[in-house]
Amino acid sequence: MNEHYFAVIMAGGGGTRLWPLSRKSRPKQMLRLFGEHTLFQVAIHRLEGVFDPDHILVVTVADQAAKLREQWPEIPAENYLLEPMPRGTASVVGLAAVALQKRDPEATMAILTADHFIQDEEKFRRLLIAADEIARQGNLVTLGISPTYPSTGYGYIHRGKTAGEYQGMEAYEVLSFKEKPDEANARLMLQSGDYDWNSGMFIWRVDRILGEFQRLMPDLFGKLAELSQAWDTQARDEALSRIWPAIKSETIDYGIMEKAERVVVLPAKGLGWNDVGSWDSLFDVIPADQDGNIIVGADHIGIGTSGSLVFNDGSGRLIVTIGVKDLVLIDTGDALLVCTKESAQQVRLAVSQLKKANRQELL
Amino acid sequence: MNEHYFAVIMAGGGGTRLWPLSRKSRPKQMLRLFGEHTLFQVAIHRLEGVFDPDHILVVTVADQAAKLREQWPEIPAENYLLEPMPRGTASVVGLAAVALQKRDPEATMAILTADHFIQDEEKFRRLLIAADEIARQGNLVTLGISPTYPSTGYGYIHRGKTAGEYQGMEAYEVLSFKEKPDEANARLMLQSGDYDWNSGMFIWRVDRILGEFQRLMPDLFGKLAELSQAWDTQARDEALSRIWPAIKSETIDYGIMEKAERVVVLPAKGLGWNDVGSWDSLFDVIPADQDGNIIVGADHIGIGTSGSLVFNDGSGRLIVTIGVKDLVLIDTGDALLVCTKESAQQVRLAVSQLKKANRQELL
Predict the structure, then answer these.
(1) Contact A318 B338 (CB under 8 A)
(2) Residue B336 belongs to what domain range?
(3) pTM
(4) ipTM
(5) pLDDT tens track for B221-272
(6) Residues in B touching A324 (Cβ below 8 Å)
């Protein structure tokens, strides 16, 4: 293990795409989709051998911190960085950079997600080690995901010429970042073979990313500098509370990556990555039974039932399905979702209606 | 009102075709499918003007009697006839005939169901009055339902020549009863126009039906005679308990109607009768909204939802449906049924599985 290498887990997301299981009080990273462990626990567990718990930082918001800490008590309390309120991924990276620079000016940080699925964890660890090597040379590294279908839900990264081989894997200079495309452009990019999905996972040296903040997001950099001054003093919390509300929400992709210098992509082939962005994506990550059904936590009787997901959390009731195909059925204590696989993305419409109706108890 | 005319409501059925709402402890006649009233209450209410509460008998089993009595307290306690155990509709009729013969040897009895839907209640009352007139002349009257589709779920009655007009409605001699047909025969009978569905509602004089029992079911008649002897004594309950277990279960249709003399059918056109035999039948009796949905008792958000039934009883939870069509969703406190309209008849398969697994708490 490299003592200058740190993981930064972004675990502050709300996320309602897995409603009714995910709620404000139970964000996606706290869900137990695959068994006994939460997505957050899975995300930490797969870092074993690359990062000690002491070298794992978690950026979250105040009201999630206590629950997350229970999930992995070995991570020291001071490694939890609390945003007073969410301000986009740029400020998450900035906050972690400020903290790490104080702790280790030579630090490399791997910005990782808390709520994604990765099939081949061994490969993921090799990618992280390779990315550290690339980052040490002063590059901003992004992990690319080899696209498997013309997704309109992800951003794309255009690969340029090779940037060398690391841990047996080829890295490439990045020509450009493309925002979420329409269907036609998604097909073109998939066919060309020159594009990877933007995974939202980045690896860089703290000094390099702070340099890019200074150059590309000077306003945010000024605020981070102010925070840095207060960091090792009793004024840290006060500074955070004062500075954070004034930050304009921005993503690291738009704020930095699209304009940064020396950006390298490390494509991950066959990683089995999935952002579990909607209920239908569970069919890509959980093995189905012989009828194509996935039954999680449910006391279920299926008659003529195929291609369906039956998920029970909290109600304990018997669920009987008859003659249904490609259906998603999520049964929680106070809400029940029944939708077709095809319309799983529209869960957000239901959540919008609940917001409009101010039904806080269900959000 | 005719003082010699009595209604006999058969309310002892179990019935699991409306599972998970209907259970052993909550049989179909106790369900509130159409609002605040149970099917039993609806069945009694539509008799108003034809039968006083005092002239309404209810045949049921012991463990249902108390709950039924709460439903309509005006019916005297002694009008409840309790079978020690169900023994088919022939013995139900026999029990009622024994009781009525003691009370009024000139009685006519209308055997009616407790769990069917009738749209045109005014017409139903006219039919009952006409049937009484026909029965007084010594005929066994059956109410026929004009078929609206080639059902394979009902028995059919073959009409013969006219038997006169009563209350402006034509009655016919019955040529024969046909058991539930296959699809091809159902089509032929529908096309011929000479057949009515067997509604299971009958009207006859007590002396006439007892005469047919003596001729066609002598064994049962012997037992009924024995019961009759004990009826007005303290030995009634003992006699019932002793006699009933020895009765062979038989339907009145098979035991009597198919072989009886002087059988007359009174066809009910446009009665809007429905036996509510499965969840999909609710679409025939409850008006749907503009999307073809029927929402009963449910806190429901529907997005792209059409032709579906969402029924909530007891859970109170929010139900969200997205992108579903022709779906039936029955949410009760301890069980949830999701099936297509098309497969609503297969609910019995689920109930069979529960029986096999001895899951009494769900039956």
Answers:
(1) no
(2) 279-362
(3) 0.88
(4) 0.89
(5) 999 999 999 999 999 999 999 999 999 999 999 999 999 999 999 999 899 9
(6) 327, 338-340
